[in-house]
Amino acid sequence: MSALTIGDALDELAAELAGPGVPPARALARDLIAGVLDQPKFWPSANQQRPLTGAEATELRAAAAKLRRGMPMQYAVGRAAFRHLTLRVDPRVLIPRPETELLVDLVLSAQRGGKGTAVDVGTGSGAIALALAAEGAFTEVIGIDLSLDALEVATLNLTAIPEEKRGIVRFLEGNLLAPISGRQVEVVVSNPPYISRTEARELPALVHDWEPHLALFSDDDGMAAIRALVPQAAAVLVPGGLLALEVDARRAGLAADAVSADGRFTDVEQRLDLTGRPRMVVARRQER
Predict the structure, then answer these.
(1) Rounded to 10 degrees, what is the CA torsion of 166, 171, 177, 181?
(2) Domain boundaries, given as residue ranges, for the chain
(3) How distant, in Å, are the alpha carbons of 47, 120, 226 from that of 21?
(4) Is residue 187 within 8 Å of residue 116, measured between CB atoms?
(5) Dist CA 11 CA 30 (whole Å)
């Protein structure tokens, strides 16, 4: 493939990827090339005469082999777009999703650009923490994860944000908010595991077979992580501090009830995603 143009590669990869149950193979090949070369979606179609280097051809061949094994596109190409960032991703971390971009919007809007310290619980690839650091005015952003593998990916992703912002970001290993016990912070934000183990069979194979189960599933019918996080957040948030959670639409009411039942939060609200489903819960720490 090393002597081929992008147009030739489109033809060959489309033929290689075609099969039953596969999306239109040429579109899949186009997306694969765009992802590997870190270009916009339709760039390959507009640049078919451009020759491929040997290294690019090797990377394309390896990514196509991963797709044939059923791997999600983002893992196959090793990167995913999140807001203004391009992040490294692999099966050690969840693939960032549009709903989580809305969670970042919510935090930035609620904090009017952000001040003080924001803590991202279950940071994974670092998507939320890095977006808040890059776009907000926080003086410190902390990403916490139980998985050392995930923290390795998040640390690699520091290079995705401007160099002058990297110094405000720290990644810590630990369960929920334990690594900052005793601190006082302005924001706690999280996309915690919230899927019940009994719902595993309902997940698409692209999710169940490839994404890390530690970041997907939670006990207590999907509510264990949320119910454990809420009182810990109340303990570290300053008066008026913001709690922002991404949740499953089926559990938004339960999550909001858990926040209200703690007794230390006010202004508890469910927020909708772009499809009109309740996917976020926000609240303020009461004034002491």
Answers:
(1) -80
(2) 6-69, 80-285
(3) 28, 37, 36
(4) yes
(5) 10
Query: Please, what are the averages of pLDDT over each run of 10 residues along the chain (288 residues)?
Result: 79 83 80 91 91 90 91 94 95 94 94 84 98 95 98 98 97 98 96 94 91 94 97 97 96 97 97 94 92
Contact 123, 144 (CB under 8 A): yes
Query: Which region, left, alpha or beta, applies to residue 267 given φ > 0 means left and ψ of -120 to 50 means alpha?
Result: left
Looking at 3.20.20.70, 3.40.50.150, 3.80.30.20, 3.40.50.300, the CATH number of the domain 80-285 comes to 3.40.50.150
Residue 5 three-state SS: strand
Q: Which residues pair with 185 in a beta bridge?
A: 237
Strand runs labelled E in the chain: 79-82, 85-88, 117-121, 140-145, 169-173, 185-190, 237-246, 265-272, 278-285
Nearest to 232 by CA among 103, 138, 119, 110: 119
B/e letters for 94-127, b = 16+ CB within 10 Å, e = fewer, are bbbeebbbbbbebbbeebeebeebbbbbbbbbbb
Distance of alpha carbon 45 from alpha carbon 30, whole angstroms: 7
Q: What is the spatial distance between Cα 90 and Cα 4, in angstroms, rounded to a whole number?
A: 28
